[in-house]
Structure formats: C-alpha cells, structure tokens
Amino acid sequence: MANCDQGYLCDICGEEVESIGFSDLYLRFVTGLVSHQDLLSSPERHIQCNPITAQFIVDDDFPSVTVGGVFAKANLDPQYVAEQERLMTRGWQRLQELAAVSEPLPLAEYPLEEFR
Q: What SS3 string covers 9-44?
C-alpha cells in the first residue's frame, strides 16, 4: 500500500490508526480537548497507546488499562477520576457511534453535545 493510501500513523507505535473508533486524537476532539483547527496538526495515536487517558475509559467493550506511577488514577483525586471516567467513557462511546454511521456526519457534529 502506498503511503498516500494509509490512514494516520500512530506516533507511539508507528502502526496505522485504522478507524476513528481507535483514535486518541478524535477522542480528545469529541471531549473538547482538541479544537477542529488543531486536528490536522496534532499527533495521532491509538487510544491504547495513550494509557494515561485510556485508563479513564470504563466500558465492558473497552479493555481495561492500568497505569502505574504518579499518573495512575489510584493516585489521583477521586472526584477528578470520577469526572474523567465519565467524560472519557462518553467520548469513547461517541467514537464507537461515529465509527458505525453509514453516512458521514459534518465534523461539527462529532463532539459530545456540550463541546459543539
């Protein structure tokens, strides 16, 4: 496959981020952490390749991620952890919805409602 036929490559593992459902960049976009202007200039990676963020996704369909050290959610403020779990889980679920749509949506409709 020619490079122009590939999707975005993960800046951590170097493999292709195959769909929006695996995209850390779009997870950050739908949760309001990245603006639409920054989508083309921000690095892409798999959600799993960003364990600090991935640890906050709590869904039976997402493999649990455990982080050690100072950024482990076990070492963070419980209220902050609860907020991040709600936000990142909702963001990941939104990505799964977007990955499943048959007709493309306008980019402005990708984010969670409170970030549109």
A: ECCCCCCECCCHHHEHHHHHHHCCCCCHHHCCCCCC
**In 66-106, which residue ranges form alpha helices assigned H by DSSP?**
78-100
CB count, 10 Å around CB of 95?
A: 24
Q: From residue 8, give the alpha-carbon distance in Å to each of 23, 77, 91.
A: 9, 34, 20
Residues 22-57: tens digit of each pLDDT = 999 999 999 999 999 999 899 999 999 999 999 999
HSE (CB half, 13 Å, CA atoms) of 1?
A: 6
User: Do the Cβ atoms of 89 and 59 come closer than 8 Å?
Assistant: yes
Three-class SS of residue 116? coil
The pLDDT tens digits for 60-106 are: 999 999 999 999 999 999 999 999 999 999 999 999 999 999 998 99
- Tell me which amino acid residue 27 is: L
